[in-house]
Known about the structure:
Elements: E1 2-7, H1 12-23, E2 26-34, H2 41-53, E3 57-62, H3 100-115, E4 119-121, H4 137-150, H5 152-156, E5 162-164, H6 172-181, H7 206-218, H8 223-227
Parallel strand pairs: 1-2, 1-4, 2-3, 4-5
Helix pairs in contact: 1-6, 6-7
Amino acid sequence: MTKAVVLLSGGMDSATTLAIAKAEGYEPYALSFRYGQRHQAELACAARVAEAMGVAEHLVIDIDLRRFGGSALTGDLAVPKDRDLDRQVDEIPVTYVPARNSVFLSLALAWAEVLAASDIFIGVNALDYSGYPDCRPEYIAAYERMANLATKAGVTGHRALRIRAPLIRLTKARIIRKGMALGVDYALTGSCYDPGADGRPCLRCDSCRLRAKGFVEAGTADPLLTEFGISAP
């Protein structure tokens, strides 16, 4: 099987991306990060998803982005709640972690070279999202060009490196339908920016509300809410 590195946050999008990589015949190597995020629930979700989907290997890398700060996910800033979903892309919220995807993709690129893998999968989305600059198609295209300039594999022409973002032009509803068709168990995933100690979602942050919107539009219940005995908002 052809190897691929899959960035796995433990959220709905990354779990769906992992399922897509497997469905396309790749042997997935999952990569997660303990980057100084305020809540560790997402790493527990990533571990559950990796085990359930039978990845070849799951690495969790430690990086301390708290040293830089600048984000509600790595510092003491409050996580925004109850924002207008229709206006979310008008400004970049404080939940944006400076250059996070660039940092993550760089480490994924290093592992891909060692594994002799040509493909790196990332679950970014530019439709139902919070307006992060490193989730846009032009960013992914630019990073792929850079990857082929910055690596031995790319420069020698031994193999072209591809940054795969299969969800980038899908709504949350379409992502959910695709994941369900591939057997993704969304009860194992977590999307909340400000979960409780037990992983219970707040239901009010951007990520929770976008997730809820997706399940409503997909016409199905979110199994994570069922796990916590929460009525759908």
